[in-house]
Specification:
Number of domains: 2
CATH topology of the largest domain: Rossmann fold
Structural class: alpha/beta
Helix content: 25-40%
CATH architecture of the largest domain: 3-Layer(aba) Sandwich
Strand order of the largest sheet: 1-4-3-2-5-6
Radius of gyration: 18 Å
CATH class of the largest domain: Alpha Beta
Shape: globular
Distance between the termini: 29 Å
Bound molecules: pantoate
Order of helices and strands: EHEHEHHEHHHEHEHHHEEE
Amino acid sequence: MKTVVTIADLREALAPARDRGDSVGLVPTMGAFHDGHGSLFRAAREECDTVVVSLFVNPAQFEKDVDLDAYPGDLEADMAFAAEAGVDLLFTPSAAELYPPGFQTWVEVEELGRRLEGEHRPGHFRGVATVCLKLLNLVQPTRAYFGQKDAQQVAVLRRMIDDLELELPLRVLPTVRDLDGLAFSSRNARLTPADRRLALALPRALETRDLEAARAELAGLDVDYVELVDLDPPVLAAAVRVGSTRLIDNVVLEKEKP
Ligand code: PAF
C-alpha cells in the first residue's frame, strides 16, 4: 500500500491506474478504522481494480473544536489495518491541503441537510458534502463506498450527486455490529464500560422497528432524536448522548436493496 499526503502525489499515484483503465473504488473515511470500515474496504477490494481510501478528519463537519480534538486517531494502526485489507492507496491530506488559504466554496444540500443530524449539528452536512465532492473530483472513482449506519449522510450525498449530475454509483454497505449489538463506530472507543452498557439501549430500541417501543427503550438516555425517516430505504433512526459521546444508529424498515 502506498500512502500519499498531497494532492500532487495523489494524482501522480493514480496516473498508472488511469492509464490502465482500472476501475477505481474510493472509500472516504475519517480513520480510527474498525470492522465497519473493514466491510467497505473488502467490498471495494472485491469490486474494483484499484482501491483508494482517504483518511481525513474533516474540520468543516465538526461544529465544535472540542468534538474535533476528541476524535480518535492512530495513523500507524490505521495504515496497518488498511494494508491488511488490501487497500492500494491511502490518502491522508492535512487540513491546509484540502482547505488552502482563500478557500471559500461550499456545497449545501439544503433541506435534507438541515433535518435530524443537521438540526443537532448545524453545518455538519455542508462540511461532509464539500469534502466528499472534493475527494470525488480528486480521485474520480468508478464507485464510492459508504456505510448504511450514516443513512442521512448517504441520502445527502445521493442528492448532491443527482443535483450536480456526477453520475457516480454509491455502494452502501449494511451496518456492521459488534457481538453485543452496538454498531461499530470510531466514537465507541470513548465509551467507558458503564457507558457501553447504557449505549446498548440504542440497538435494542431500534431493533423493535417501532417508534413508540423505541422511545420507551430510550427513556433513560439523553436522546437527540428518534424518528421514522422516509429515506431510500426508510429507516428508524436515533441519536443519543452517553456521557460525552454522541452515537447515531438506524435500522432499515424495508428489505435492503442489493
Ligand atoms: O462518514 C465519514 O467518516 C465522514 O463523514 C466522511 C464521509 C469521510 C466525510 O468526511
